[in-house]
Every structure is written in C-alpha cells, then in structure tokens.
C-alpha cells in the first residue's frame, strides 16, 4: 500500500500545481487546511454556544430582573430587558445542539481526524480529498443554517436539543416549532450528510493508506480512537437522519409516525397511531453513541499527550484498544437508559441498566491506565498536558455519577434534574472540551508552524479548571434536591428558594470561566501571527507527524514516506540515549520490539 | 458609540495582556525556550496540581456542608422511597470513596513525578496483573450495584393488582394538571381526547356512554389517603409531560396516545411531613430567605412574599413549552377519614356535565 501512495504523491502533490487563493484557502482538498477550516468554524460556533449559556446562566441567577445585556443581545425577546420564557428554552436548545454537534463532534473529530489520520499513519492525504472538501462545506452550510434559524420571527427551535415530538412537531405547541424547527431539521440533515462523508473517508484512509510497517497494532491510540469513532458514526447517524426525515413528514405532510390522539388549542388533530416513544428510541440510538463519538477522540488525544509528556509509553496499549472497542460496542446497546421513565416496558429498563453499568468497566480500565502512565514518569507540564490531566480528573468526577443515573431505580428521582446536567457536562462536555484544548495546544505547532504561548495557556487552564468545577459540582446537589432542568425560573416554587444562592455561585463561576476563554481566543489567533517559529518536533514526540516539514506541503513529506519500524510509544526505552525513539527509526541490532 | 468605545477598550486590554506576557517571557532567564515547558514550569504546575487537588476536596466538603441538606436523601414520603434512598446513599459512598482515591493518585503523581532535566522515566508498558486487578474490582462492585438496583427497580415498577390500589388518572395538558378518581367502582371510565367537548365541560374526553365513567371525579388537587397503595394512570392531551413527585421518589412521563403508569404507597401525611425535624429546618431556612427578599421588595414598593408552608408537589419534568417552569399541582396526603370527606364534596362526572 505504501508503493501506491508513493507513486501517486509525486505526480499529484509536488510543487507543480499552481494554487490560487480559492483552491488553497477556500475549496481546499488538503487535509491540513480542511482541519483548520473545521477548527475555525467550530471555534466560532463554540463562541456562540458558550455565550448563550452565559446569557441563560444570568437569567437563572437573577430571574426576571431587567438586564441591559439581555436587551442588547436578545432584542424583542427581552422587552425592557426582562428575558422571555420562550427564548430561554430556545437558548438552552440551541446551546445544546451547537455544543454537542457543531463544536464537540465536527469541531473536535473534524479537526483532529483530518489533521492527524494522514500524518500519523504516513499517508499523502485522505483517501478522497474531494469528499473531504464536500464534507467540510456541508458542515459549513449546516452551521450557517443553524445560525440563521436564530433570527426567525417566531423564534428558533426551543423543544430541547432532543427535540421530542409532539412539542417539536406542532407549531401551535410552541413558537419555536414553526420555521425555527424546520431550519433546525434541515441543518441537522445536512450536518449528518457531512459527518457520514467524513467518517467514511476516515475509515477508508485508516484501513488502506497506512505506510509500510504501520500495522494496526503500531497505530497511535489517537488513530484507533478516530477510526472507531468513525465506525460508530456511520452506524448511528443514519438513524437520526431517518428520525429527522420522519419528523419532517409528520410536520409537513400529515403522517403520524410520532403523533397520536392530540387535542391542542381547542381542536383535535387528525394524527392517529404514532408514538413519541418511537422517536425517543430512534433519537437515542444515535444520541447515546453520540456522546462516545464526542469523548473517544478526546480520549485518543489525551492518551497521546499523556504518554508524550510523561516521557513514558502509554500503559496497557492493548488494553486501551480493547477498552475503546468495548466502549464502542456497548455504546450502541445502552440508549434506553435515557428512557427509563418514558413509558417503556420496565423489563426493558432492567436490560438497559445492566448494559449501561457495564460501560463503567472499560472506562475504569482507561482511567487507571492513564494514571499509571503518569506514575514514575518525567512529567512535562506543557499546557496540553495540563488539559489532559484535567480531562482525566473531570472524566472520573463526571463518570462516577453515571452509576447513579444508569441505575433505573435511582434515575426515577434524578431524571431530568440538574443532577443530569452536572453529570453530562462534566463527563462529556468539559472533558471533551479539555481533550480538544489538549489537542489544540499539542498540535498547534503542526497546524500553524508557530508555537502557542505557554504562559497564557497556563492561565487559561487553571482558571478554566477551577471554574468548571465551580459551575458543575454544586449542580449535583440542587439536582438531588429535585430541581428540574429547563425551568426558566424557580421563583414559582418556594420549595426551591434555598437553591437561589447556589445558582448565583454557579453563575459567577460561569461568567469568570467564560470571560477567560477570550484569553484563549486571543492566544490562539495572536500566536498565528506573533508566535515563535515552531521547531520540527517541539514535544520530542515519536509519531510520524513530527517528521514532516514545519511548512505545510501537499503530500506531507517532500521525499518518500517514512517506513515504520516500531510502535508509537518508545519513550525512555532502555538502551537508547534520547528519551524518545521515533517510529521511523529502525530497530537496533538485537533490540526487541516490545510485544505489546 | 458605546460599542466603539467598548471595542477600543478591549483592544487596549488585549495589547496590555500581550505586553505583560512579553515581559514575562523576557524575564525568564534562558531564551532557549520556544514555549516548551521548562523545569521551572514543571515545578510551578506540579505544586498547582496539589493545590487543585485541595480545591477539589474543599469544594466537595463545602458543597456537602452548605448544600448537603438540600438533597432528598432521607425523609421519603412513600413506602418504596427508603429503598431508593438506601441505594442512593450506598452508590454515593462508592462514588466518594473512588473519587477521593483516584483524584489523589492522579494529581499526586503529576506532582511527584514532575519533569526534571536529565531524569529518565521508567519504561513500563504493560502489566497483565495490574490490568486484571482494575478490571475485576469494578466488575465486583458493579455486580453488587446492578443486583441491588434491579431488585429495587422491579419492586417499584411491579404493581400488584391484588393490593386493591386506589386508581387515579393524572392528566397533563399545557400547562396544568388534572386528577381523575375512579369513583366508587374504582374503575376509570374510557376516555380519548377525540371525545373532548369543551362546551359540555367534558374536558378530559370521557366516554359519556361508558357506565364506569359516570362516577369518575375530576379534580385540580391531588388528595391521597395515607397508607393506601395508589396506582396512577398517566395521560397527556398535547405534548410530552412528566409527572414528577420528588418527595415520593416517583416519576413517569405522560405520553399522548398511550397510558403510562406508576404506583406507590404514601406513608406520611402532609401534616406529619411538616412536623419532621428536617422539614421544619428547611421551612425555617426558606422563610428566612423569603423575609430577606421581602424587605427589598417592600422597599421598592412591591408586595412582600407570603411565608412558605410545605406541601407535596407534582411538577412537570419534561420540557413542554413556554410555561413548563410553572406547571404544578398540589398533593395532599391525609388520613382515610379526611380523604373520604374531601372526595364526597367533589362532583361526579355525570353531574358535572353541562346539559344542552
């Protein structure tokens, strides 16, 4: 397979091509440029998503109080600066949608799968550069549509990011279920097409374009994670697409897939025989694997960064692969734990409790292996390393409460309360964001040829780490006190008056944490222009991407693609003078490759 | 204009930060650096790791002390509630134990093995024994939790019809709740939203021809006799709702087009619940907060808040539209005699219809 890659590289990708601005920066087919496009688009969406969360956090801390910020940002949705209840739900809905799909799926997987798969497996580019370009532009289009939906007259989609019908299906049930929801569904359908094109490309590339000597068991764990993520995506995203299409049919063509026996605003609707529970099944058949689509790439990145910065091999390489596979498999058979109290047969609930709690086993294996990787290391505290340690910390904190939520008997009382909000934000929101930051800090030199300022990185990490715990840790307690999520204000329940002060604390942490992301943005964009020039291999890392020149070229390597002779984790190997041995260095005489 | 000024200020702040960082960079002795961590960075961040570990422990303890009395971990008002609470407490103990140890190991190792020039890490790639240990321990712990959890779940969800439960329908609509009692025959009459006739006040769509429907009673407050099993049948007329009764550790979605169910036995009357020490303390606490708030309100010429008196509540816990945040119904648990007296005063369905 390397022979094939070699021949095609020199003809197509040399310097003969004359590139215009458009082919280089806009309709680029180069995986490195596409990765950057994903990252920048994801960053812009992230800014929007986080800003929304700050707006509704202010509302929750000081409910129904006039606020100039609301008046300025929400316009007609905040008459006299008092937030409208409909827009509150819309903000929550779009915040969830943007963060889950546009930032942590496309922004994370799109960026790093594109950047690292060809570079780390030793390929000139993705299997299909054209499909890759189409994938990005579909993502861009879906982002634009999602943002446009914010400006619709009757308001954007507001049925929660899970868009359960009938609420999402009936414009008379909620203003946001009109044009806003139509745009949401169109945007998501395009997004899914983009994601599928991307995933197919990743799978084919990993299977077919590995350089000579790069066996599957010599792949860095990043590639394993991206590869398995792509497979889960291909299995589960089409199911969401079908759910979205059926919902579009119910909304626009009068079918009854999800609707039955509805009386609203004084009239009986014609729908008969459908079931909202069916939609829940279809939605969560994607929705649960989706959280692993988000977290697995982050796990891959963290495994890589922890090993490189501990100057130690990742502990239990094969166990790490096995746990990725186990998590991927289990992720497709646990969706029912979102539906314990949906009216689904309680026996089915028992089955899903069983499969759900099993996921804790591979997750525990991963956490212990990461900790052991640091043990007796020579830990280099680069910003990427801090975010990776932060990842393990929040993944443990957030993951542990999963054994409460996965337990159907306990879920009865904390379902849809702030306990759930705390759990999933820590375990897949903050953790995945940390994974993304770790990746950005680690591969920034590879992406932009410049170093990103480490001191700003340190400040960014420590403030973010403290604020993330400050925001989400107290939420467990208000959730256990029975406070439902998605409430515009709690002031109609004197029962919850003793929670108000917790909400203020949470909001202050959120505001500080949010403002300090500006520092990161400043560092990110500033370093592109003012950063120090990056050396070829700044982190003294073993993987192939650091053997490419700092200046990006088409085809990645100026000469032949390097041949791989060892696994990706020969850090501090006895018998070598330096504490890392790159994958393309042949084994010494008598040196044994580890039987990992 | 304000926007422009704000932008200018932000630009200046950014430049200031950049300059500060530049100075910070220049002050760092050796200029060998290319934004890669030095031994000094490793040391500083190593200590910060220990500081952060302390922060995690502190925020845990502070949260427990300050907000630990908010949770519904004791004082359950239903028969199965204490089982749920015990399981919850057991799970929390496992969680806190694991959390404390693993966070310690993670941050302590990061501190202890912080990098130094010339030091070499241990080449330690694999150990089957270790892998086995931390696979088997979670397996055993989880097996225990799964068995305990599923037992509890099956007990809660398995409604025994032989207990002769009181059958009550919970009916959800944007944005309020109704309750329908089955009457003397303890059998709910047939109903469908297609039969709703607002003009005749048949608001829940009962089948007027069904003999079982005649003695049904529709109310806007939920009254339950203490100690008697209740079987709720849930319906919704428009969108998904969720009947959440946190004090009874009970919740079930209301789904248009189908009937869902949940059963429990209330064991404490509203009056008894108000008398429990935990509740007394909570009420006192809440009323102090309300008094403070009222002072501000009165100063602004608004009305003061009424003092809080505890009542069981049914809340909507599935996003259902604009007024989702205010969809509630009062639940009163009382003695059988009080309940009998109350139900007697309510109108039966056949008498509540408007004759045309």
Question: What order do the SSEs of chain A take from the amino end to the carboxyl end, as H and E?
Answer: HHHHHHHHEEHHHHHHHHHH
Number of helices of chain A: 18
Task: Give the distance, in angstroms, between the N- and C-terminal Cα atoms of chain A.
Answer: 24 Å
The portion of residues forming beta strands of chain A comes to under 5%
From the N-terminal CA to the C-terminal CA of chain B, the straight-line distance is: 66 Å
Strand content of chain B: 15-25%
- Unreliable residue stretches of chain B: none
Cα shape of chain B: elongated
Structural class of the secondary structure composition of chain A?
mainly alpha
Task: Walk me through the structure.
The complex is a heterodimer of chains A (596) and B (356). Chain A is built from 18 helices and two strands. Chain A has helices at residues 2-13, 21-26, 31-61, 68-74, 85-121, 129-148, 179-208, 221-253, 276-310, 317-331, 346-358, 360-374, 383-400, 402-405, 408-414, 418-448, 454-480, 500-530, and strands at 263-264, 267-268. With 596 residues, chain A is an all-alpha fold. Chain A has a two-stranded antiparallel ribbon with strand order 1-2. Chain A is 62% helix and 1% strand. The relative contact order of chain A is 0.11. Chain B is an alpha+beta fold and 356 residues long. Helices cover 45% and strands 15% of the residues of chain B. Chain B has eight helices and ten strands. In chain B, the strands form two sheets. Chain B has a five-stranded mixed sheet with strand order 3-2-1-5-8, with no helix packed on it. In chain B, strands 4-10-9-6-7 form a five-stranded mixed sheet, with helices on one face. In chain B, strand 6 (241-245) and strand 7 (250-254) form a beta hairpin. The radius of gyration of chain B is 30 Å and the shape is elongated. Chain B starts with a helix and ends with a helix. The mean pLDDT of chain B is 90. Classes of the chains: A mainly alpha (596), B alpha+beta (356). Chains A and B meet through helix 5, strand 1, helix 9, helix 10 and helix 11 of A and helix 1, helix 2, helix 3, helix 4 and strand 7 of B.
């Amino acid at each position: 397979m390397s022979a094939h890659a070699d021949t095609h590289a020199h003809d197509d990708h040399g310097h003969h091509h004359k590139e215009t601005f458009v082919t280089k920066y806009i309709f680029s087919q180069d995986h490195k440029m596409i990765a950057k496009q994903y990252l920048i688009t994801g960053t812009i969406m992230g800014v929007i998503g986080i800003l929304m969360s700050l707006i509704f956090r202010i509302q929750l801390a000081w409910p129904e109080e006039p606020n100039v910020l609301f008046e300025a940002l929400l316009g007609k949705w905040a008459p006299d600066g008092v937030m409208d209840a409909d827009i509150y739900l819309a903000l929550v809905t779009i915040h969830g949608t943007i963060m889950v799909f546009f930032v942590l799926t496309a922004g994370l997987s799109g960026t790093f799968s594109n950047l690292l798969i060809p570079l780390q497996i030793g390929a000139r580019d993705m299997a299909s550069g054209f499909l890759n370009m189409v994938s990005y532009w579909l993502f861009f289009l879906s982002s634009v549509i999602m943002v446009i939906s914010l400006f619709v007259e009757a308001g954007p989609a507001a049925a929660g990011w899970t868009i359960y019908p009938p609420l999402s299906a009936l414009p008379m049930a909620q203003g946001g279920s009109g044009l806003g929801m139509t745009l949401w569904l169109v945007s998501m359908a395009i997004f899914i097409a983009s994601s599928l094109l991307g995933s197919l490309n990743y799978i084919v590339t990993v299977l077919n374009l590995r350089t000579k000597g790069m066996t599957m068991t010599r792949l860095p764990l990043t590639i394993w994670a991206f590869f398995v993520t792509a497979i889960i995506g291909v299995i589960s995203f089409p199911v969401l697409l079908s759910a979205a299409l059926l919902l579009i049919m119910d909304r626009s063509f009068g079918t009854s897939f999800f609707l039955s026996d509805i009386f609203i605003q004084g009239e009986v609707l014609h729908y008969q025989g459908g079931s909202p529970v069916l939609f829940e099944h279809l939605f969560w058949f994607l929705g649960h694997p989706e959280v692993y689509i988000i977290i697995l790439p982050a796990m891959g990145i963290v495994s890589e960064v922890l090993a490189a910065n501990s100057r130690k091999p990742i502990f239990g390489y094969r166990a790490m692969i096995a746990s990725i596979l186990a998590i991927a498999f289990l992720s497709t058979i646990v969706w029912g734990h979102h539906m314990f109290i949906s009216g689904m047969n309680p026996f089915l609930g028992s089955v899903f409790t069983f499969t759900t709690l099993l996921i804790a086993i591979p997750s525990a294996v991963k956490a212990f292996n990461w900790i052991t990787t640091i043990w007796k290391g020579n830990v280099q505290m680069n910003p990427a390393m801090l975010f990776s340690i932060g990842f393990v910390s929040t993944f443990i904190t957030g993951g542990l409460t999963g054994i409460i939520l996965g337990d159907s008997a306990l879920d009865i009382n904390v379902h849809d309360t702030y306990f759930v909000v705390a759990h999933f934000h820590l375990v897949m929101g903050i953790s995945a964001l940390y994974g993304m930051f770790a990746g950005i800090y680690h591969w920034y030199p590879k992406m932009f040829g410049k170093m990103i300022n480490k001191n700003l990185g340190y400040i960014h990490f420590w403030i973010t780490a403290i604020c993330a715990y400050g925001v989400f840790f107290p939420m467990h307690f208000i959730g256990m006190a029975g406070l439902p999520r998605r409430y515009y204000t709690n002031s109609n329940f004197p029962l919850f008056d003793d929670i108000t002060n917790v909400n203020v604390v949470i909001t202050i942490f959120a505001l500080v944490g949010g403002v300090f992301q500006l520092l990161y943005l400043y560092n990110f964009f500033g370093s592109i222009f003012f950063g120090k020039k990056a050396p070829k291999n700044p982190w003294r890392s073993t993987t192939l991407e650091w053997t490419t020149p700092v200046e990006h070229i088409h085809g990645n390597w100026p000469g032949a693609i390097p041949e791989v002779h060892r696994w990706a984790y020969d850090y501090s190997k006895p018998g070598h003078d330096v504490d890392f041995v790159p994958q393309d260095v042949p084994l010494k005489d008598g040196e044994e490759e580890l039987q990992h | 204009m304000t926007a422009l000024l704000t932008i200018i200020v932000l630009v200046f702040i950014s430049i200031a930060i950049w300059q500060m960082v530049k100075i910070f960079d220049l002050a760092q002795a050796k200029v060998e650096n290319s934004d890669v961590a030095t031994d000094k960075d490793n040391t500083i961040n190593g200590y910060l790791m220990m500081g952060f570990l302390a922060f995690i422990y502190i925020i845990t303890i502070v949260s427990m002390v300050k907000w630990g009395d908010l949770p519904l971990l004791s004082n359950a008002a239903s028969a199965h509630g204490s089982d749920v609470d015990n399981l919850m407490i057991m799970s929390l103990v496992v969680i806190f134990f694991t959390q404390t140890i693993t966070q310690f190991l993670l941050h302590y190792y990061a501190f202890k093995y912080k990098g130094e020039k010339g030091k070499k890490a241990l080449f330690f790639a694999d150990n089957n024994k270790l892998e086995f240990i931390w696979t088997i321990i979670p397996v055993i712990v989880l097996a225990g939790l799964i068995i305990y959890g599923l037992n509890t779940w099956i007990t809660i969800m398995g409604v025994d019809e032989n207990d002769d439960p009181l059958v009550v329908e919970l009916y959800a609509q944007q944005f309020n709740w109704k309750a329908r009692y089955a009457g003397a025959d303890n059998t709910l009459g047939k109903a469908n939203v297609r039969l709703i006739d607002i003009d005749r006040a048949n608001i829940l769509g009962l089948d007027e021809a069904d003999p079982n429907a005649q003695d049904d009673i529709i109310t806007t407050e939920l009254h339950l006799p203490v100690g008697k099993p209740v079987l709720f049948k849930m319906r919704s007329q428009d969108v998904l709702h969720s009947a959440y009764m946190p004090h009874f550790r009970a919740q079930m979605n209301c789904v248009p087009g189908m009937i869902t169910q949940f059963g429990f036995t209330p064991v404490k009357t509203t009056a008894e619940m108000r008398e429990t020490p935990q509740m007394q303390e909570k009420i006192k606490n809440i009323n102090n907060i309300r008094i403070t708030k009222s002072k501000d309100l009165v100063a602004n010429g608004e009305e003061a808040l009424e003092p809080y008196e505890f009542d069981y509540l049914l809340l909507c816990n599935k996003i259902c539209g604009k007024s989702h945040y205010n969809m509630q119904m009062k639940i009163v648990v009382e003695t059988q005699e009080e309940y009998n007296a109350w139900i007697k005063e309510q109108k039966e369905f056949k008498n509540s219809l408007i004759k045309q």
